[in-house]
Amino acid sequence: MRKHLLLALCIGAFATSCQKKDADNTNTDNVSTATLAKIKTLGFGTDGVRKVENGYLVEGDIVLTDELLNGNNENKLLRVATDEQYRTTNLVSKPRNIRVKVSNLGNAFIVGTDTALARYNALGLELTFTRITTGTADINITGFYQGPSGGYITLGSAGFPTGSGNPYNSILMNTHPQAYGSSPNILYVGSVIQHEIGHCIGFRHTDFANRSYSCGGAAVNEGASNVGAIHIPGTPTGPDPNSWMLACSNGGNRTFNANDKIALYYLY
């Protein structure tokens, strides 16, 4: 679904692909060489990096904050094999109820959020989720408006937990008509939000080492690094079809598969 990239949906004949082509992902204007080096050291791709309000957008739907980029991450992450469930160094403290608020978005995004939260809550994890309409939220879901580029369109973006044990506090959902259409499918929107929540609580893309698995096109591997992602024990070392954390959306409903549940139960 990633996303991020990414969480992106291809337009037209490539409706099942979710990642922009490399040729369209080389714009790193206004991003310093030093920052790109930090991003690469953390094990993320550096093609198409963009400066955003809260940090830098990488892989199409992941926001890396300045706190994460400038933190001491040495030897805390380890890349193993190529297709597995991965987590980041930081996780959310548990047990914990995470409050989620949807602001200035239509009914499809509200119901889609309820759908995503219900799927997490049904697992009986030590993390639970509640949608609130007033008060302070732990995760705020708001909109942005961005059209397609190079035949693809970003569906949403999020970041990773903080070092203090809190989830990433923002999910941005694309309100452009070509993202979800004029009458968004609730299960589709819910699947995207479910994916972005996965990032907020510490999950990386299942196929981050080769996003062509879900995105199509040429194989994209971010390269070897001493840091990158922590493999979650009990999850496969080969391709994992239909994982909720695949980099690119299949254009429809996608929820937890068996290995996703193993990963979630192991962490939470």
UniProtKB/TrEMBL annotation:
It comes from the Bacteria. InterPro entries: MetalloPept_cat_dom_sf, Peptidase_M10/M27/M57. It holds the Pfam family Peptidase_M57. Transmembrane segments: none annotated. Gene3D superfamilies: Collagenase (Catalytic Domain) (3.40.390.10). GO terms for molecular function: metallopeptidase activity. This is Dual-action HEIGH metallo-peptidase. The lineage of its organism: Bacteria, Pseudomonadati, Bacteroidota, Chitinophagia, Chitinophagales.
